[in-house]
Amino acid sequence: MPDHVSDSFWPRWQQTASTRVAIDPSAMLTGFLVFVGYYLGARIGFALTFQPHPVSVFWPPNSVLLAALLLAPPRIWWFLLLAAFPAHLIAELQSQVPPTMVVCWFISNCSEALIGAGLIRYLLQGPVHFDNLRSVAVFCLCGAFLGPLLSSFIDASFVKMNRWGQGSYPEIWRLRFFSNFLTALTLTPAIVTWCNFKPSQWRRIPSSRALEGSILFLGLVIASTVVLYNARTNPDPVLFYALLPFLLWAVFRFGSRATSAAILVVTFLAIWSSAHGHGPFTNESAEINARSIQMFLIAIAVPIMLLSAGIQERRKAEERFTAAFRGSPDPMSIVRQRDGTLIDVNDHWVKMFGYQRSEAIGRTLFDLKLCLLEGGHVQEMVGFRQSKPVRNVECAVRAKTGEVRQVSLSADIVEMGNELCFIVTIRDITDRKLAEEANRDLVHASRVALLGELTASIAHEINQPLGAILSNADAAELLLESESPPLDEVRKILADIRNDDVRASEIIRHIRFLTRKRAVQMESLDINEIAAEVVRLMEIEAHRRSVSLHTEFTAAPATIFGHRVRLQQALMNLILNGMEAMADAPEAKRRLFVRTVTNGKRRIEISVSDSGQGIPPEKLPRLFDSFFTTKEDGMGLGLAIARSIVDAHHGRISAENNSDGGATFRFDLPVRDSEASS
Amino acid sequence: MTAPDSEKPIVHVVDDDDSLRKALTRLLHAAGYEVRAHASAGDFALSDRDNRRGCVLLDMRMPGPSGLNLQEALAKEDEPLPVIFLTAHGDVPTSVRAMKAGAVDFLTKPIKREVLLNAVRAALARDMRLHTSHEQLRDIRGRFAKLTSRERQVLELVVAGRLNKQVAAELGISERTVKVHRAEAMKKMRATSLAELVHLADKMQSADL
Description:
The complex is a heterodimer. Chain A is of the alpha+beta class. Chain A is built from 23 helices and 12 strands. Chain A is elongated and about 150 Å long. Chain B has helices spanning 18-30, 41-46, 67-75, 92-100, 113-145, 149-159, 164-171, 175-188, 194-208, and strands at residues 10-14, 34-38, 54-59, 83-87, 105-108. The chains are: A alpha+beta, B alpha/beta. The interface between A and B is medium-sized, with 29 and 23 residues.
């Protein structure tokens, strides 16, 4: 039966349960401690009953059992209950209670511990921690309240069945419920927290802390004695508040373990004093005194425990944040939104900007001149009601040395001490920017170089219409000089001049991209269209080099996503490379093929095949490296640029020798879905 | 310009670019030339030139046979028409080849009017000059062909500067007979003096070299 409980309530224990050796030496020890604890608890419970006719105010055995169940794995719960049974018998039989009643009480006591521990384990899915708000709330509700509440019905029923005791059913229920509620609330947390305390931790406590703890303990004992033992009946209610500073001291300075101990000290002294006829809770009947003292202690214990848990939870969250902030590999700062004052900075921030923490904290971003004008975004954030987090804004910042770095900035808005603050994370992207710029310059340089190589072709292309325009104009002039100028003819000439002018500007527009530095945006492109445009532009060059150009384009949709100009450049580089490879071949054999084919469903391949010498096999691996060239006058950039462009488009570029001579260069690009582009 | 139509020279424009070809044709036409336009070297080669004189404006770079190919083919003709090359962007090796092959000029597009018209004028003049001397030579050869073999022997020796007596001795005939042959040859060659005869013989000799 307990094994089933363990399966459903706390899976963590399943692995150890699989050994089927349920009771190991440590479980035996736990059982023994439960036996001792239960017995002592019962003795203390008897000792603290209110006279003349015994009224139990504080009943520790059940709480000892609950604490044991909370601490132990469910698979040995049965054993712990079994270990408590002899203690129960010994304790109860000393007080002339009929054996049936003794057994019945044991059953109701066990039911209380099982209900509490079971519900807590079920709800928390793990052990209970008294420094967590939810955990404490669940404990108060299930362990301290519901367990005693439900088991008291069973208990009262047993009492009535055995015709033991004189009280009515509600009276018995009420007495038992309140004493168990109070005990579970005050004793169980103390047992659980102190059992989790390892002896080795004592040694790590600094002496100042030990001293503070001792003063607190002493103060609490003295205050409790004064308030709860020495005070006369009907004291000034203000007197009760004398306990609060010590309890709050424990809460704020020490945590759940000291808090539960302090509550237990107050509880014990209050009950002990009353039981011995001292203190404020002695002027009524035993039942009323008991209820007053229970209410008083419950009313103190619940808020103090919740407060302690809340404070510790917050402290842990702060510690976690601080650890993340300090340990972050990126420079981080906390900046007040109102005026840009730096509230905190981390070590990497100090390293990046060169200001010490003490220099930076308390001064504004503007005092330190951290942001350059390009970082206008930061100025916009500060002082305005910006409520959205900022993500990856690129801007420039200046370190103490005056060095300017390019950074990517992200900021979240949090409220800290009633002030809106930014938690700013920056990432140094200077190197990446420089690399990007260098690459852009390189690509541009190679395009300009390409322009130089194509000068002859371009000049031919443009001079053709320019020549026609000039000759047409000359012809018109001559015609107008004659006696009866043929105006119709002149009109036709003017129309032709206009057409040729348009043609010339078209050509210029086509080649203009070669000199443009910044490429346009990525867009959806038809790769066949791009290839056709490049081939058109290269036709003259091909003719100049006596190369015949052939094209074979796929009929399948060939839409890709990319930079038009850059892809054209990549293809031009490959075509030019192919033409150069055929410079030594006989003219009739200089054939260049430009093909596009769909390669599987998702990719499209563009290939350029020449009929030249082919590539020496030992040079294949380094073909696409920068400054690697097999040509005497080559820079070795054309293929490297082509590769960098293809890479940027998530493509693959490769080269191989053809079986029938020459080489083929190919690259493939991912096809863009028609749905995605729409 | 007063020559009958069949004598008027033709300027041939060979360029694959429709628009430029049209413009050049218009300009040359407006300048008073008779112009024939051809879209390719092949078109020109297949056209009927009616044995008319003229010149060729030839684009260097065309699909199919290039300008240079056409120039080579033209040069093999009996009386080749002078060729003016047109190019959009002259590169040195090609122009050297063209000039070596006898091109009269090499013009870069766009071509200024005076440059074009001067080049055409010069080419036509050159063609005319060559044609005229060619005609003369043919005439002289025609006259020479009418001489008997004895008259030719006498003529050769006289032109070489021998006296009648010496000719007679060399050929083994009488001096009187030499005189008769010499007079007949002079008449057939339509030479009025010995100097003129020497001049005609010179022309034939230099053409045969």
